[in-house]
Amino acid sequence: MMNNKGKQIISSLLFPLLAIVISFFVSVFFVMWAKGYPITRYFSALGDLIGTIWKGSFGTTRNSMTTLAEITPLIFTGVANAVAFRCGLFNIGVGGQFVLGMLAGALVGTIPGLSPIIHIPLMIISGIIAGGLWGSVPGFLKAKFGTSEVINTIMMNYISLAFANYIILRTRFGVPGKASTATIEKSAEFARFMTTSQANTSIFLAIAVAIFMAWFLWKTTTGYEIRAVGINPLGAEYGGVNVSKNAVLSIVISGAIAGLGGATHVAGVTHLAQDFMVLPSYGFDGIAVALLAKNNPVACIASAVLFGALNSSSRALQISGIPKQIVFLIQSIIIIFVATDYIVKYFSDKKKKGAIMNE
């Protein structure tokens, strides 16, 4: 007989998998419309869609490396969002914290004369500090004044863009005429798997962070308190948990992970920070990654693989006559179904509480 914990694990995995399957089955109709297939060729269109996504993301070594480079920042931002969600907070500012991590990494990376043993950890620490400090502002405002972290983090995103662009375009840290910082030193670069690809060893750091955060949330007292606040803040406070402290801590940790992702993105992929017209999409994509993973940091790895594969296959889809926008359609359907699960669970819990109160 399967114990209750096993049933809970299967139940938590079943709905995200169902959401993925349904999203593909629904998206096929748009493939049929784009390619002019009749309804009798439904499964042919399904095969075209899945096959093209697979070939575009993992069909060749080069495509696999491109996908790997796309997956890495999604793991960081997915885990960052998952930590905040676990405390019942919505950190929309992950994108801005990622930007500050990129900026900090780009500036520290240009320091000359350092050994890689010192330079790479220094870049990592700078990203953690920059993202954590940026996250501490909305966290403090939430704890001190009860203001919405959603509104504050959205505003902080715009401030992060303006601040980063000011540093890049109007200070000596930017390269005149290039709208970017100087290229980082070789000693600050993560090793790449191939010279023709941007995939690099920061993927191992991303996986390590995801595993560590899972251990932290489920095996430490602080992690337990963060989860308790997310489940029931009033009950947690009644049990002696400092709700305000844990709210600040969770957003600081979330921001630190996002900032770490930004710094490693510079160290492994871009090797500099250009002026930002818009926020990098990784912050908002990380929300989808965390939701699909049910806010489990380890599950964020698998979720990031899916979203990374979808993103990197968009060109192959377009070449085969399938609009690349279908990637966003699949992602949207997945998010809708996962959100529906949260809504159903919310009203189910509310109904149970009402029944208990009436007894």
Automatic annotation (TrEMBL):
It comes from the Bacteria. InterPro entries: ABC_transp_permease. It is a multi-pass membrane protein. Keywords: Cell membrane, Membrane, Sugar transport, Transmembrane, Transmembrane helix, Transport. The keyword Cell membrane applies. The keyword Transmembrane helix applies. CDD domains: TM_PBP1_transp_TpRbsC_like (cd06580). The chain crosses the membrane at residues 12-34, 83-108, 120-138, 150-169, 199-218, 247-270, 326-344. It is found in: Cell membrane. This is Simple sugar transport system permease protein. It comes from Clostridium punense. The lineage of its organism: Bacteria, Bacillati, Bacillota, Clostridia, Eubacteriales.
